[in-house]
Write a structure and sequence with these properties.
The N and C termini lie far apart (153 Å). The protein has 379 residues and is an alpha/beta fold. 41% of the residues lie in helices and 25% in strands.
């Protein structure tokens, strides 16, 4: 920030308007952030503006304070403010030096009394969490094929149309029982509790649906009676309350939270088109598997048939080979084979001559060789 300097006129220091405003603005930046209460008036916004402007008016004496707030912060709060709404603004005082305008630079806004509601909800949230109502292990799986679906919603509500349209589009045979009841105001919590209890006796899964709204509009869905009824519901329950950024306590107690009513329809019923495609793929896979199994059995049968056809021939060949092997061994061990190698069998009469002392000179002997026999006389 530029240094604030005065111009000397003799013994007098004089600030320009710009320097004076910058000096005051610099001093205001040292002040702490504060809460200011008042009624909203003269609310101004434009798509091209980076900030939203309005005036806080004191209902007691009519005192006014200009307020500016970054448009992103203002839109993110989704307060839907209108002239006359009473709010608490949290921010820091500042001076717009170019025009010398004093105002509050708001960092947050709450409707009057909202802080008390938030504190009470935080205490209730901690109490119910300590009792285990929000524990993940108590969450139940949704049924894949619910014969009957219960829908708790408002009369002629867009949320009801979204859920019913989504269910009918995904799975036309679905049977939906609708319980129309209050979903806003002081009677809403008790009415929703009663609807849940009645539908739990008739259905297999329940959807509690409500469209978006302000913080006050959604307060019934953080009511302790309703949260406990959802946790004690005997059938699985889907909470589809508000928009994705809204988190009423019923979302924490429900078995499944849906970001929108349309998303709830996708959670409770399967898609009939996808089921048919999966069925077609399964049927094709079963057919292909049966054909492959049949082909394998046919191949094994053909192989067994060929083995049976060749078995007698193979057995005969093995027997013939074994016989020839035995015959070869017999031939190798027979006396004839010995004679064929150049040996001879000498007999004297009927006896085989095994020693030279067994014959005398002049004895006749008989000599057998490989290809015949002949007589001889010992000398």
């Amino acid at each position: 920030m530029m240094k604030v300097e005065a111009t000397a006129y003799g013994d007098r220091k004089v600030f320009s308007v710009s320097a004076f405003n910058r000096g005051v603005a610099t001093w205001l930046q040292r002040l702490p952030t504060v809460w200011v209460e008042g009624e909203v008036t003269e609310l101004k916004r434009h798509p091209r503006w980076q900030s939203v402007f309005f005036t806080l008016k004191d209902p007691g004496d009519g005192a006014c304070l200009g307020v500016s707030m970054p448009r992103g912060l203002f839109d993110g709060l989704r307060l839907d403010l209108a002239d006359g709404d009473r709010v608490h603004a949290y921010g820091r005082p500042e001076l717009y030096a170019a025009r010398g305008e004093f105002r509050l630079r708001a960092l947050s806004l709450e409707r009057f009394g909202l802080g008390d509601h938030l504190a009470a909800l935080e205490r209730l949230k901690g109490k119910l969490a300590a009792e285990g109502l929000f524990a993940a292990e108590r969450k139940r799986r949704l049924p894949v094929w619910p014969p009957a679906i219960g829908l708790v919603t408002g009369n002629d509500a867009a949320a009801k149309r979204d859920v019913l349209a989504g269910i009918q589009t995904r799975f036309p045979p679905s049977h939906v029982i609708v319980a129309e009841t209050y979903v806003q105001g002081p009677r809403a919590a008790a009415a929703v509790v009663d609807a849940i209890r009645r539908l739990a006796e008739l259905t297999d899964v329940i959807v509690v649906a409500r469209g978006g709204g302000s913080f006050e509009d959604l307060l019934p869905f953080s009511d302790e009676r309703l949260v406990r009824a959802i946790a004690a519901c005997p059938v699985p329950l889907v909470s589809a309350v508000g928009h994705e950024q809204d988190t009423p306590l019923c979302d924490l107690a429900a078995d499944v939270r849906a970001s929108t009513p349309t998303a709830a329809a996708r959670l409770v019923v399967p898609d009939l088109g996808e089921l048919r495609e999966r069925l077609d793929r399964s049927r094709a896979a079963l057919g292909a598997g049966a054909r492959r199994s049949l082909d394998r059995h046919a191949q094994r049968l053909a192989t067994a048939h060929e083995r049976l056809r060749r078995a007698p021939t193979l057995m005969l060949e093995r027997r013939r080979a074994a016989l020839e092997h035995t015959a070869g061994r017999l031939r190798a061990l027979s006396p004839q084979s010995t004679l064929n190698r150049g040996y001879a069998i000498v007999r004297a009469g009927e006896s085989i001559v095994r020693s030279a002392e067994a014959v005398e000179p002049g004895d006749r002997i008989d000599v057998e060789v490989g290809d015949g026999r002949f007589g001889a006389r010992v000398e």
